[in-house]
Prior knowledge:
The chain is 28% helix and 25% strand. It is of the alpha+beta class. The chain has three domains: 151 residues, Aldehyde oxidase/xanthine dehydrogenase, molybdopterin binding domain (Aldehyde Oxidoreductase, domain 4), CATH 3.30.365.10; 189 residues, Aldehyde oxidase/xanthine dehydrogenase, a/b hammerhead (Aldehyde Oxidoreductase, domain 3, Alpha-Beta Complex); 301 residues, Aldehyde oxidase/xanthine dehydrogenase, molybdopterin binding domain (Aldehyde Oxidoreductase, domain 4), CATH 3.30.365.10. It has a seven-stranded mixed sheet with strand order 3-7-1-14-11-12-13, sandwiched between helices. A five-stranded mixed sheet has the order 9-17-16-15-10, sandwiched between helices. Helix 10 runs parallel beside helix 11 and helix 19 packs across helix 20. The longest helix has 28 residues. The chain starts with 17 loop residues before the first helix and ends with a helix.
Amino acid sequence: MSARQFTHIGTRPVRHDGADKVTGRANFGADFALPGMLHGAVLRSPHGHARILSIDTSTAAALPGVKAIVTGRDFPKTDSKVWLGGEGALDLGDMGDNLMARDKVLYDGHAVAAVAATSLAVAREALTHITVVYETLEPAMSLARALADDAPILHTDLKTSGQPAPESGGPTNVAARMELSRGDVEQALADADVVVEGEFQTPMVHQGYIEPHACVARHGTDGRVVVWCPTQGPFLVRDACAGILGIDAATIRVIPSEIGGGFGGKIPVYLEPVAIVLSQKSGRPVKIVMDRDEVFRATGPTSGSRVVMQLGAMRDGRLVAAKASMWYEAGAYPGSPSGAAAMCALACYTIPNFFIESFDVVVNKPKVAAYRAPGSPMSTFATESLVDEVARRLERDPIDLRLQNAVSEGDQAPYGPKYGPIGLKAILDAVREHPHWTAPLGTHQGRGVACGFWFNAGMNSSATVALDTDGSATVVTGNPDIGGTRVAQAMMVSEELGIPVERVRPVVADTDTAGYTDLTAGSRTCYATGMAIINAAQDVKEQLRLRAAKVWDVEPDQVAWEDGHVRSLVEGDERPPLTLNELAATLAKTGGPVVGSASVNARMAGPAFAANICDIDVDLETGRSTVVRYTAIQDAGKAVHPSFVEGQMQGGAAQGIGWALNEAYLYDDDGRLQNPGFLDYRMPVASDLPMIDTVIVEVANPSHPYGVRGVGEVPIVPPLAAVANAVRGATGVRFTELPMSPPRVLAGIESLESA
């Protein structure tokens, strides 16, 4: 792909929504209100696993101010229907059961009833008057317990899908099995000069978005439903609510609010169908806002995992064999990212012989949701830890070893296709050349490096670009803006039409206004929706070229578009070019408004790679680990707005560092979550981290007109292993279980000393 010279792409303009967000004018989910609105509250199970024997709502219903109460009986049982949601498969039947329990509660926080009342205080008071009689059951709170022969079974009708599926003599908690293989792995391991192995475990962790889930729903007497909510996909909310409630999607309008973070966690619906039914029963709009306790207990974290892996290498450094078994917690319903984990685990390296199997396992915890590159950080934690051990055994520089085995264009990915132009080797070269890599370390400090991979998604997107008579433009899409996509979309219009980015108005539209568009997820928005925007802007240019031909009374093929204006190709024609502003001013006389539109089904996206360098200082007396320097390097294809690419890289690193060092869901033996709040769920804050340095590598993606690759997900893949490799360097201990909290690190140091 030849290098294109850009005018606007690659610059750093101020984002269009910046002033509203820093001044508080922007409206998020909980900010919205309607006249006559009721307030909703949800009663949630205190048990990890229990059968519901009865629910009595009569006393609550009699309270003054209570207008409606719903339980699982108010929701139709939805036939299972699976469709792709950008970050994996979503099952409507399971999603419906998850938002309101029927016969059993399957985790601490599972909703069992909801109330709509004239005030939030009354609604919460009403919850205390709902009597639920439970028969408590043993919860399966770990992979080991869920997989045991005598395990408590969550779903008696669950059968293992996938090929080949494991043999099962009865009920199972294994929802799916996947297998990938190539070559003769057993022979290759036997022939390898060095074989390293380990068992790696990670806990459930939450995305930690600051804004909780919220929604307002209005069910009109005409059957029309309007929902306002912060979501990563308004069309998914529309279709999910329709499917779960058994109503026509054409009667539902979803209006996305500003969204205060998502990272994959605001894809599923939790409140919206509940609010719709409460509104239908009460005849009034209903607003429900989760508190932080509910967010942690009842919305999707990502899976806890267990990965057992072997890696074989020759003395010359060639990686020749890998064998791995992976078990991922799905939560209460099937659907962990175990398949993606298997596909990503070895994606950075040319390993001729491998066998990978992965298992999707249900446990009595919240149904998992996507979290930036779902599944990849955990399997990569295992792979990159073992690659680090191979380098140590062979006394090889860890960058040289990775470069020797890194994939490049034409290599076959472990999951099937051959790579096109990719930037992993360029990234590793940038790591080796970065001053961080050769900087001196202090006492009790260690340095770690790790690579990471994510596929990136394409899927469906639509866009319209409307030109106004003053020469400004509006671009309309259906993708909520989580990471600065508004300004990136405006920049694409500017690049095509040659107008200042400040004169392009990017609009995030509702489901009745925008053409169908898949989620803001899968690192697809700047890539796929960007393609639709570029096509729509080119449609505008073509219409303007035809208008110019009409103004000049020449054939259309005698007019060319160049750099924001049209010029005549007629030989000897001395008429000056017409600028976009001049053409826009004549729209009413040359045929009326000009609106360009386009839709794409982008099937191929550019795979993304990254590498991180981490320096850790470990206090040998307390086990406390402090990140003292961190560098993230990533191939963006083409950075449309470099500041936001850097922000994605820094944000993913910060989340991954928290995951590696402190974050974990902590449950007691009865299945109750012990840390459902930011006080006890320890996410990094600004004082915990150094400034994260970033280096953007640009190896153009030929699937995109500008060479763009998605950048939002791969940043979280390397940090778990990079931090672990740094702690290994500082302490001499290989930690294979996360988080590497001070007590765990101190225990490892003391164990090494006693040995």
